[in-house]
Structure prediction request, 267 residues.
Amino acid sequence: MKDSIAVIGTGMMGGAIIKSLKKSGCSNKIIAADIRPKRLQELEKMGILTTANNLEAASNSDIIFISVKPSDIGNVLKTIKTEVDGKLVISVAATVPLNFLKKFIPKAKIVRIMPNVAALVQASYTAYCCGENVNQKDKKRVIELLNFLGICEEVDEKYMDAITALSGSGPGYLSIIIESLMYAGLKVGLPRTIALNSSAQTVLGTGKLVLDLQEHPAKIKDMVTTPGGTTIEAIYELEGSQIRQALMNAVEAATKKSQLIREKLNV
Ligand SMILES: NC(=O)c1ccc[n+]([C@@H]2O[C@H](COP(=O)([O-])OP(=O)(O)OC[C@H]3O[C@@H](n4cnc5c(N)ncnc54)[C@H](OP(=O)(O)O)[C@@H]3O)[C@@H](O)[C@H]2O)c1
Prediction:
C-alpha cells in the first residue's frame, strides 16, 4: 500500500510540489488543502482531491507536506496536531527550525526541506534535514518523493539559512543572469526568441555539465576557452567586473535575512 500524501498550502511552492508529483508519475493518492477556494478549484480540474479542512487532509494521509508561509505554520500545526502522531510531516517553510515544529507536534516524524521553484519542472535542488525520530526507512520514503521534484540531498540543519539563500532564492538570481544574456543577444543583433532560448538553455546545459561530469566550473570554463579565441575576450571583460563579488554579497545578504526573519518570528 502506497503512502497517501497531503499538501497543506497550495500556493507557489505547494502547487509546484503537487504538479510535479503528478507530472513525474507519482501514483500515490494526493489530497490538497488550502484556505483559498480558487487554488483548490484549479487543482480539482487536474483531478486532485481537495479540501478546505486541514484536519481532514492530515487524517487521510500518511505523509503531510506543509507549504504555508512561516507566519502561518503555527496555526496549521495546532489544527492538525491530533492526526499526525507517527506520521511524516514535511515542512517547506523557510527559516522555521525543526525544534519549533516539534513543540506543536512532538510525536510526528518531522522533516524540514528547502526546495526551489524549479520543482515545477522536476529540476529542484531540495535540501532536507530530519528530526531525531526519523529512521532510515522514513528517509527512503522522503527521498523517493523528493526525487520526483528534482534532486535532493540531506544537510545539517545549520546550513538551512545558507541553502535558502543560495538555491531556494537562486532562480531569482539566475533569472537576472539569463535576462542579461538575452539583452546581450539583442545587443549583438539576435532575434528576441533566439536570444532568450539560447541564453536559458546555455545556463541549463552548463549546470548539467557540472553535475553530470562532476567537474569543477573552472574546468568547464577551460573547455570553452581557446587561446586567442572569442571566449577569452568575453571572460577578460567579466573578470574586470564585480560579478563574482556581487553574487557572493547577494547570497550573504539573503542568508543574513533568513536569520533575521527567524529572530522576528520568535522561533
Ligand atoms: N516560493 C518559493 O520559491 C519558495 C521556495 C522555497 C520555500 N518556500 C516556502 O514555501 C512556503 C510557501 O511559500 P509560497 O511561496 O508557496 O506561499 P504562497 O504562494 O503564499 O502559498 C501559501 C498558501 O497557503 C495558504 N494558507 C495560508 N494559511 C493557510 C492555512 N491555515 N491552511 C491552509 N492554507 C493556508 C495561502 O492562502 P492565502 O494566500 O490566502 O494566505 C496560500 O494559498 C513558505 O513557507 C516559503 O518559505 C517557498
Q: What stands out?
A: Strands lie at 5-8, 30-33, 49-51, 63-66, 88-91, 109-114, 124-130, 150-154. Residues 209 and 215 are 7 Å apart (CA to CA). Residues 243-265 form the longest helix (23 residues).
